[in-house]
Every structure is written in structure tokens, then in C-alpha cells.
């Protein structure tokens, strides 16, 4: 497993890195059989230390958590506890969904764009307001089942997830609705 442990404008000592590797390794060994890499970033916000951790599993799932505390070790422990709770909560689902999967999840490339409106004077015609592309980047689109997509959405704490449906190969979207439920968009079923 690869670890990337860094700090944003703070120095991370060797002792903290060793502690993070040992603790995360313990959590991952307990709940996931095939992790690929973990990224842990420490930063400071005012008087608090913040620890953000993201673990990518070969099954296509991404688990992420964030912890805050006045001490840096306590911030990591808070983050680790949240991650442990997420992994424990989904342990049965992870096992049930991935026992039949022999190969890792396949990813396809896709382009992601961030659009921002242009600033126009107040007396300008409102029909002429068009957003402009301010960022363009590559993103990965996993080829997974709907159940795995919902699990990924919940584990990562995201609002929406675009994926290729393993059942029929079409592009689908799952998203968190305002009422707390999960919505699923499958264009193939809209006849």
C-alpha cells in the first residue's frame, strides 16, 4: 500500500508519519482486503489542526474523512475514528458486493469542466450572460453496479456520482436528494 502523508504549510515529523501509517494500516487491514493508496493531508485553520484522509480501494471505492482538533495527533485520531466508523458500517455491504468481483473496477477517462459566469455591467442584456470555462481537468468514471455507486456516494460523502452501469454499459448518475434519499438517473429507462 502506498501512503502519501503531507502537510499544508506545516512540517510533518517522522514520528507522526509512522503513527499515521501504523494506525491507518490497522484500520484498513481490519475492513478492506485490497487497498491501493492512502493520502493524508494535515493543515491548520486558525487555532485548529485539520487532518483529511482519503483511501482508494482496488474495488473502486473511495473512503474519506476529516478530523479537527487543537492537537495534531488528536486531529488524526478524530479522522481515523470517522474512517473506522464508515468502514465498519459498510463492511458487510463491501463483502457482499465484491466477493464475485475478480478484477478491479475499470475506469474510463472523462473531461470535467468548471463554469463561471462572466461579469457584465448591470445595464447589459441578461440573455447575453454566458458562463465561461475556467477549469478543465480529467476525471475517472468507474464501471460499477448501482448498489456500488450508492455505497461509493455514501462513503465519499459526495452529492452526486457519475458512473458507467455494469449492467448495460450506459452512463448513469446517483445523487443525494434534499430530503435525504438517493436519486438515480438512468437515461436508458426513459422511454
From TrEMBL:
Gene3D superfamilies: Ribosome hibernation promotion factor-like, Sigma 54 modulation/S30EA ribosomal protein, C-terminal domain. Belongs to the HPF/YfiA ribosome-associated protein family. Long HPF subfamily. Pfam families: Ribosom_S30AE_C, Ribosomal_S30AE. Its main location: cytoplasm. Interacts with 100S ribosomes. Associates exclusively with 100S ribosomes, which are dimers of 70S ribosomes. It is found in: Cytoplasm. The keyword Cytoplasm applies. Required for dimerization of active 70S ribosomes into 100S ribosomes in stationary phase; 100S ribosomes are translationally inactive and sometimes present during exponential growth. InterPro entries: HPF/YfiA_ribosome-assoc, HPF_long/plastid, RHF-like, RHF/RaiA, Ribosom_S30AE_C, Ribosom_S30AE_C_sf. It comes from the Bacteria. This is Ribosome hibernation promoting factor. One of its GO terms (biological process) is negative regulation of translational elongation. Keywords: Cytoplasm, Translation regulation.
Amino acid at each position: 500500500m502506498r501512503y502519501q502523508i503531507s502537510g499544508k504549510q506545516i512540517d510533518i515529523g517522522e514520528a507522526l508519519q509512522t503513527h499515521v501509517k501504523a494506525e491507518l494500516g490497522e484500520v484498513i487491514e481490519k475492513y478492506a482486503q485490497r487497498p491501493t493508496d492512502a493520502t493524508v493531508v494535515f493543515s491548520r485553520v486558525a487555532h485548529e489542526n485539520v487532518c483529511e484522509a482519503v483511501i482508494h480501494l482496488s474495488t473502486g471505492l473511495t473512503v474519506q474523512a476529516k478530523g479537527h482538533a487543537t492537537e495534531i495527533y488528536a486531529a488524526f485520531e478524530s479522522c481515523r475514528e470517522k474512517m473506522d466508523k464508515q468502514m465498519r458500517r459498510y463492511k458487510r455491504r463491501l463483502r457482499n458486493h465484491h466477493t464475485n468481483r475478480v478484477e478491479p473496477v475499470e475506469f474510463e477517462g472523462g473531461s470535467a469542466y468548471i463554469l463561471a459566469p462572466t461579469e457584465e455591467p448591470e445595464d447589459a442584456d441578461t440573455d447575453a450572460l454566458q458562463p465561461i470555462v475556467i477549469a478543465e481537468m480529467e476525471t475517472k468514471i468507474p464501471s460499477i453496479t448501482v448498489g456500488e455507486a450508492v455505497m461509493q456516494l455514501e462513503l465519499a460523502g459526495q452529492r452526486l456520482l457519475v458512473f458507467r452501469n455494469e449492467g448495460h454499459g450506459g452512463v448513469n448518475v446517483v445523487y443525494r436528494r434534499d430530503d435525504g434519499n438517493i436519486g438515480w438517473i438512468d437515461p436508458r429507462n426513459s422511454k
